[in-house]
């Protein structure tokens, strides 16, 4: 396998349009990657860049000021090798509900 230093990275920018917020509210992004806060919106280790920003001229659009750089590993490129917590029944149910599958149409 390639060394971690040679794994590809991708810069991701998030933007939310037409967000109805009130003064003092904020919008942030979390996800399953460490760079995205590992699903913890209050993670003190995550970068402040995870919070989207807006201004008088941009509102109601919120955007990140800079990209979040995510390292693409083998599991990201090939898909997860071990889908913990999922059963064949779960995957069949989700596949049947997707508009792209014949069962979901």
- Count the E strands: 6
- For the record, what CATH class applies? Mainly Beta
Give the fraction of residues assigned to helices: 10-25%
Q: What structural class do you assign from the helix and strand content?
A: alpha+beta
The overall number of domains is 1
How would you describe this structure to a colleague?
This protein has 105 residues and is an alpha+beta fold. The protein has one domain: Immunoglobulin-like (Sandwich). 13% of the residues lie in helices and 15% in strands. It is built from two helices and six strands, in the order ββββββαα. It has helices spanning 74-78, 88-96; strands at 9-12, 15-16, 27-28, 51-52, 62-63, 68-71. A two-stranded antiparallel ribbon has the order 1-6. A two-stranded antiparallel sheet has the order 2-5. Strands 3-4 form a two-stranded antiparallel ribbon. The longest helix is centred in the last third of the chain and has 9 residues, at 88-96. The chain is elongated, with a radius of gyration of 18 Å. This is CBM20 domain-containing protein. GO terms for molecular function: starch binding. Residues 4-105 form the CBM20 domain. Residues 78-91 have a biased composition (Acidic residues). Residues 72-105 are annotated as: Disordered.
